[in-house]
Amino acid sequence: MSETRTRAIRELLAQRIRDDPAIRRKRLRRRIAVWGSAGLVGAVALTTGAAILFGATPVTDKTIVHCLSSTIRDADGTYPGSSATIADGNGPGRVDDALALCAQMWKQGALNPSVDPTAPTQSPGMVPPLQVCVMRDGTAAVVPSSSASVCQSLGMASLEE
Q1: H-helix segments, 79-136
Q2: pLDDT level of residue 3 (50, 70, 90 thresholds)
Q3: Listed residue (67, 130, 56, 128) closest to 95, CA to CA
Q4: At what angle do helices 3-19 and 21-53 cross, to 10 degrees?
Q5: In this structure, are residues 61 and 51 in contact, taking their beta carbons and an 8 Å threshold?
Q6: What's the first-to-final CA gap in the chain, in angstroms?
């Protein structure tokens, strides 16, 4: 056989192997397995890094607490709610029990989404399940949620017990 005929037969066989449906499915399954494994390894690494970065931390700034009324950000990127502190006569206020302070604000109706800030009195409100998170600046943020992982989903650290 001539060299050109041998080359033509090899190309024909190679094309036949590339076009065979069983071989194409096998290659597709192999690609899915490889890329799926790589994605899984990446997700585990990302989760581990986030757990280290957003792990439990203590509140370092106890002069103010942020009582959030929702876990959904406003258009300007901030969370709706109010900030509070407890002032005493000797200087700046200190917040030692952020959960109790925000629960009291919920009871008074101050964090109700339909609150009218100009009304002389507010109707009493219900206190939802609350979680205490730590913001990046070290202040406490009390978030309305029954999920213990709400802090991580909001990009905040959990409160160190």
Answers
A1: 98-107
A2: very high
A3: 67
A4: 60
A5: no
A6: 82
